[in-house]
Amino acid sequence: MMEHSANGVWKKQLDGDLNGNYYAFQVKIDGKWLEETPGLVSFQISNHANGDTWNNIYVIYNARTTAVDYKLEGEWQLAVLGDTFYDSEEKIEQGSINVPPISMAIIFQE
Predict the structure, then answer these.
(1) Does domain 3-109 have CATH number 3.40.50.2300?
(2) Do 67 and 98 meet the contact criterion of CB atoms below 8 Å apart?
């Protein structure tokens, strides 16, 4: 079982040769387990964390060989999709974002 430590970090130390092993985890929020999607990892950084100018940041990694439609709640601005970086406020995502195979997306709310 993982242990909660300082600054919201969860940790678990394993000893020995772990070559060839892997781990997976699921997240429980408000008593409900979030769906598990193999090959997809996402997380949100909220409330201007570490003094960031963006209020909420969502990072989505897609390790699958196919694109993934990732459901979104609310309106998000696109910062990175695949290997394209957006430096203006023109690209807005609502409802879902299509994350290309073996790539990532970074979206944010100001």
Answers:
(1) no
(2) yes
pLDDT digits (tens, 9 = 90+) for 50-104: 788 888 999 999 999 999 998 888 889 999 999 999 887 667 778 889 999 999 9
Q: What is the pLDDT of residues 23-63, one digit of tens each?
A: 666 667 678 777 777 788 888 888 888 788 888 999 999 99
Q: What is the 3-state secondary structure (H, E, C) of the chain?
A: CCEECHHHCEECCCCCCCCCCCCCCCCEECCEECCCCCCEEEEEECCCHHHCCCCEEEEEEECCCCCEEEEEEEEEEEEEECCEECCCCCCEEEEEEEECCCEEEEEEEC
Q: Cα(96)–Cα(57) distance, rounded to whole angstroms?
A: 15
Contact by Cβ (8 Å): 107, 56: no
